[in-house]
Amino acid sequence: MNVGSTIREIRQRKGITIAQLCEGTGLSKGFMSQVENNKTSPSISTLDTIAAFLNVPLPYFLLEKKDRLKVVRKDERKYSIHGKYENKIEHVAEQAGLRISLIEIPVGFPKESKPNVHEGEECHLVLRGTLEVQHGEDTEIVKEGDSFSWNACVPHLVRNIGDEPVLLLISSYAENRTRIY
Asked: What's the pTM?
């Protein structure tokens, strides 16, 4: 963990000198130099003092670089093909078991009505088109702008009943999901 490097990056980005940081926190320059060079680890209390001075939430210092802000550019998104109908799924973002995907569902999909069952929770937003959605014994018709959610361990099915492809934004969470990025 590179807490000191993170402190230095934030301090420099905010245009704060090490002398100003030390004056504002009451910490010595020698100690702060050791911290910023990752040669010593400050206590949680000291980190809290530094975080308050830099106006940064304390937990931010403890995040690994891989757990910070991630940007996936549109032209860098990963795709996968799912099922025998080879639906193209565009993976928009993923973080710690949470995934956001875009899927285009062709007219008449699916030709067979076999429900899907898997681990996780899902929330859906219909961006275009009309779907019939089934979850267990519940069935609803949803259209552009409507949303729906469910526990995916219950048998579920989406059927495009409109006359155009459906564009569906899906946010899903599964604890033991393998990362795709």
From this structure: 0.68
